[in-house]
Amino acid sequence: MIDNVTPDDAKKSLESVVKMEDAGWRRAMPDRWFGAGVAVFIAGMFAVYALEDPYPYIVFPIIGLPLFIATAREKSGAYGRDAPASNVNMWTVVLFITVLLIVFFGSIFIRRAYDAAWVSLVAGVLVGLVVFLTSENARRAHRARVEKAENK
Amino acid sequence: MTKAQFNTVIHAPNRLQICAFLTPLQEAEFQVLRDELDVSDSVLSKHLKQLEEAGYVAFRKGAVNGRQRMWASLTKSGREAFSGHVEELKRIASVIDYGV
Q1: How far apart are CA A111 and CA A117, in angstroms?
Q2: In angstroms, what separates the C-alpha of B79 from chain A's closest C-alpha?
Q3: Smallest Cβ distance to A74: which of B32, B62, B90?
Q4: B27 pLDDT above the threshold of 90
Q5: pLDDT tens digits along A108-132
Q6: Which of B11, B13, B28 sits opposite A78 (nearest CB)?
Q7: Average model confidence (pLDDT) for chain A?
Q8: What ipTM was predicted for this assembly?
């Protein structure tokens, strides 16, 4: 069969590949509400420690986050691949999680040591903002890639 | 680096488009694929089945608002085969570019 494929045929096939890949990228555009929702649930995990007895409530953001992600994906019709594994990506994720854990346990320690409920609230708001801004950044990068492909 | 290799299963226009569309995606719903390719349910089913038999596409069933939906994704060997096929197409097309 390969003998029947002329350079012109190959070029046309490649054009259709690029067109459909671009369509896939467009479909994979993350929703702004998705990033906001994830940020709210993660902020909730921190902010709930402002309560006197947080343990009955911590379960809500812990269960809510994966449920929210699964539901948003099911409703989207198509969603992008997780970032491909690379050393840079891996270390960025490790660093991000380490900072989150330091803020998490640090805010709980300060809240208990000084009975300062506002520390957990501030930590929740700050972490929520960082997560939302990170998701917006990823969304902008994704949109730039789609627009670049459309303007080719 | 992926080895350039012509793939007769993937080369058919609709199957090539299915693989290309699924490349940047984790999963896509059957209806989304059908709309993007602008083909009927039966045509899409036929091509997806051929890709599944070759081990290039996997399916998952899920429910949204109580309705059954089918999701398709490229398998690891599907991604490798598609990538190899695209490399081979580039090699064939380059015959024009280099004027050989």
Answers
A1: 6
A2: 12
A3: B62
A4: yes
A5: 888 888 888 899 999 999 999 999 9
A6: B28
A7: 87
A8: 0.87
For chain B, what are the domain ranges? 8-97
pLDDT for the residue B100? 43
CATH topology of domain B8-97: Arc Repressor Mutant, subunit A (1.10.10)
Given an 8 Å threshold on Cβ–Cβ distance, is A7 in contact with B93?
yes
CB atoms B25 and A75 under 8 Å: no
pLDDT at residue B67 greater than cutoff 90: no
Q: Which two tokens stand for residue A53?
A: 């007895």
**Three-class SS state of B12:** coil
Q: How confident is the model at residue B62 (pLDDT cuts 50, 70, 90)?
A: confident
Neighbours of B36 (CB within 10 A): 19
